[in-house]
Amino acid sequence: MSPYFESYLTVGAFAALGAVLVLAMLGVAAVLRPAKPSKTKNMTYECGVDPVGSGWSQTYVRYYVFGLLFVIFDVEAVFIFPWAIQAEQLGVFGLVAMILFMLTLLEGLAYAVKKGVLKWV
Amino acid sequence: MDAILDLFDNFWVSLGGKLLLVALMIPLIGMVIGFAEMKLSAKMQYRVGPYFAGGRWGWAQLIADGVKFFQKEDIIPTDADRPVFKAAPILVLVGTVALFVVIPFGPGLIFNDLDVGIFYALAISSLSTIGVLMAGWSSANKYSLMGGLRAAGQLIAYELPLVLAVVGSVILAGTMSMQGIVQAQIDAGYPYIVFQLVGFVIFMIAALAELTRIPFDMPIAESELVMGYVTEYSGFRFLFFFLAEFANMFTMSAIAVTLFLGGYWLPGVPQDVLEWAGPFILMGKVFLLVFAMIWFRWTFPRFREDQLQSLAWKILVPIAILNIIVTATLKVVF
Fold first, then answer.
1. Do the Cβ atoms of B219 and B150 come closer than 8 Å?
2. Count of domains observed in chain A
3. Which residue of A has its CA nearest to B148?
4. Do B167 and A80 touch (CB under 8 A)?
5. Chain-chain contact of B15 with A7 (C-beta, under 8 angstroms)
6. How far apart, in whole angstroms, are the C-alpha atoms of residue A59 and residue A68?
7. How many CA atoms lie within 13 A of A86 on its CB side?
């Protein structure tokens, strides 16, 4: 088996182990634990009295614009890594190009701040 | 003896051994860090902490807690979205376990030295947050919903400083493999914190936020949201969130140690000593950082949600980008 394939298998096996651990321990606990559900016990918790309305209440996601910015910035941060590994070999040309790229990123951030979208509403 | 060691040359046998090792390591780490947190917080608040379990110092407290959780009823609220509610702790623990793959414990002692090591670690570490968001949403509870949304907002804000803080070390090492980064520090003769102090500080702040530890514990915020996204969880499902938090404290610290503090290496220790002392040196450094995290928890008050966002976007991200520019310039020019 090639090391390439082995790496994938190891990662997959470790991820599967996470799921197996949870299921196995819950399975063992299922033998030992009591199970006496009742209407009040299974009620949603809300400060001790009966809950008012649905738990999925309308919520104002205040960081909506932050989310949009995050997608843009995170995708662009990925571009930095391939260059970072080869920074020395790519030399001054690569450095100048990347500095321009990162300054553009910073300018985008500064624009967002100036526009006032990074204000908590 | 040799026959047994030869057996581990087989890929499947060694994979099985690794899985067993990690399955034992995670509860052990959870117990050690959990106990350390109990005792240290007691010391910092002039209390005694756990005292009776196990005879002396209450050393068996966490074992007793584990046994207790086995007997707890598994309550799923009627209103909850059952499949998602059940899947959330699984996803949280999957992210935790998968993170162990790339931690180098010594020369050659790594579960698998992926070429994209650090990048993989950053990607996997945000998997837990999806589990947290699922837990918050599926509980059908107002507190849980707020907690889950806050956790997602926190990930959005701090993923970026975390990723950018790492780039400095990658530039210096010229590789993303975790073993490669440690080896580069050994070859250079100094840990990267010497030139990457800024990167280290940003990484630790962002790691604290990703771990939702105080001062960034808004998703749980006991005094505002009861217990945040875990409000509706009980028994073992509840325990898994805490196990994952403690194990993640360990892995995040181990990544920080590898990137900035020289990993399993200490200046002046020869290679043949590192072969067996590596894991102990790594553990020592990791628990130093874990101690700092526990220390912060009992020292700082909680941030406000808007302060959290502006700290990340207006301070940490620009500083991280400037750090990359300075590091790269120094590396290329000199």
1. yes
2. 1
3. A61
4. yes
5. no
6. 18
7. 9
pLDDT at site A64: 79
Contact between residue B147 and residue B228 where contact means Cβ atoms under 8 Å apart = yes
Cβ atoms within 10 Å of B220's Cβ, excluding its own: 24
Q: Do A14 and B19 touch (CB under 8 A)?
A: yes
* Domain spans, chain B: 1-71, 74-333
Residue A121 located in a structural domain: no
Least confident range of B6-20, B33-47, B84-98, B320-334: B6-20
d(CA B47, CA B33): 18
Three-class secondary structure of residue A27 per DSSP: helix
- Chain B contact present for A9, CB below 8 A: yes
Looking up tokens 């072969």 gives B275
CATH assignment of the domain containing A85 = 1.20.58.1610
Write out the residue range of the structural domain in which residue A61 sits: 3-115
B160·A1 Cβ contact <8 A = no
Interior/surface letters B145-156, b for 16+ CB within 10 angstroms, e for the rest: bbbbbbbbbbbb
Confidence of residue B210 (pLDDT cuts 50, 70, 90): confident
How far, in Å, CA of B309 to CA of B153, rounded?
A: 8
The answer to whether the CB atoms of A34 and B71 lie below 8 A apart is yes
Q: A74-88, pLDDT tens digit by residue?
A: 888 888 888 888 877
B142: CB partners within 8 A, 6+ apart: A46, A51, A55, A57
Q: Tell me the mean pLDDT in the region B59-87.
A: 84
Minimal-distance CA residue of chain A relative to B171: A84
In the predicted structure, residue B119 carries a pLDDT above the cut 70: yes
**pLDDT bucket at A121, cuts 50 / 70 / 90:** low
> Residue B68: its pLDDT value, please?
85
List, as ranges, residues 18-77 from A with C-beta within 8 Å of B.
18-19, 21-23, 25-26, 28-30, 32-37, 39, 41-47, 51, 54-57, 59, 61-63, 66-67, 69-70, 73-74, 77
- Whether residue A36 is contained in a domain is answered as yes
Tell me how close the Cα of B217 comes to any Cα of chain A, in angstroms.
17
Size of interface A-B (CB pairs under 8 A): 209
A55 and B140 in contact by Cβ < 8 A?
Answer: yes
Question: Residue B155 pLDDT > 80, yes or no?
Answer: yes
Write down how long chain B is: 334
Residues of A in contact with B138 (CB under 8 A): none
